[in-house]
Amino acid sequence: MPQLQYPKKVVLGDITVRDGFQHEEKFFSTDAKLWVLEESILAGFKRLEVTNFGNPKRMPQFKDADELFKRLRNSKRVKHLLDDVELTAITIRERAIERAINARKEGYGPDRVLVMVSTSESHQKVNSGIGIEEYFKMCEEWFPKIKDVGMKICGTVSTIWGCPIEGPTDMRKAVEFTKRWLDMGADDVEHADHDGSAPPNKVYEYFSMVLDAIPDPTKHVAHFHVTRGWGLANVLAALLAGITHFEGTYGGIGGQPANFVDDTPVGGTGEYYYRDPSIVGLVCMEDMVVMMDEMGIDTGVDVDHVLRIGRMVERIVGRRLRSECVRTGRIPKEMTGRK
């Protein structure tokens, strides 16, 4: 009988505390963030995004960036596990990169930093304040300094399947940018569908092109948003193309940095470019883990622990989130006795 062919082992990165919380219009305590990070490590995650070292006046969700890193590095609950865990900070511009380098020198900083380029000039300027070529030039100047302190670099490519500002984009440009990041010294590339523009057939087509050009699957991370509900379909399409590294958030939260936090308007990255900012978010980690487990894929994480974390994240955020599996649970493997 014909069967789908896909990788049987994957690496999952949890990015709830950074990408998930950044779109929420209230500040979450450092205690809450630390709990999510610790529990994720205890559940088996080896890759986590901790914070954003960008301007806290524009993104106050990250005003505790240094404190959070220090507390995580010194956590009695997980300190013995951190040698096998890769902690990432977002560093879009020079000041953020400099902060990460200084934190690293002081012994508590990230293992990996993430820089971000869009194939759309308009989206690039909204995200970083400068154009594409100027941004690449900036990164060329900073990459050696990042490497000198022993940090890895992830170069994100965004607006691969479309831009919320300009509309359709050319996927071939994203493949070119992927090569450019790796040639510059990036350790891996995050391929991001930040606004949920990617249909599954185009996801398969794109990642097939990427793996033809750069066959090493460890160099590629798939990052899908579910603005239009296609998240897990896109995960499957990427799996079928041969991708092995994925990201998600508990409850499927996340999106553009909030421009209103607690009771105060803030800069964020400007006006929301979503039609309805309440429905954006990433692939739901709980549902992705359960789906992969049912497919016989080794995710390296404890499925039941992930579901417990997901239920608690709903309490932290204060509302019902997108996960179906935190309600339905895993598929029973034996008779339950229920009628």
From TrEMBL:
GO molecular function, one term: metal ion binding
Coiled-coil stretches noted in the UniProt entry, renumbered to this chain: none
InterPro entries referenced in this protein's UniProt entry, alphabetically: Aldolase_TIM, HMGL, PYR_CT
Pfam families recorded: HMGL-like
Stretches assigned to the Pyruvate carboxyltransferase domain: 10-307
Keywords: Lyase, Metal-binding, Pyruvate
Top-level taxonomic group: Bacteria
Any Gene Ontology biological process: L-leucine catabolic process
Family per similarity comment: Belongs to the HMG-CoA lyase family.
Protein name as catalogued: Pyruvate carboxyltransferase
Organism (species): Thermodesulforhabdus norvegica
Lineage: Bacteria, Pseudomonadati, Thermodesulfobacteriota, Syntrophobacteria, Syntrophobacterales
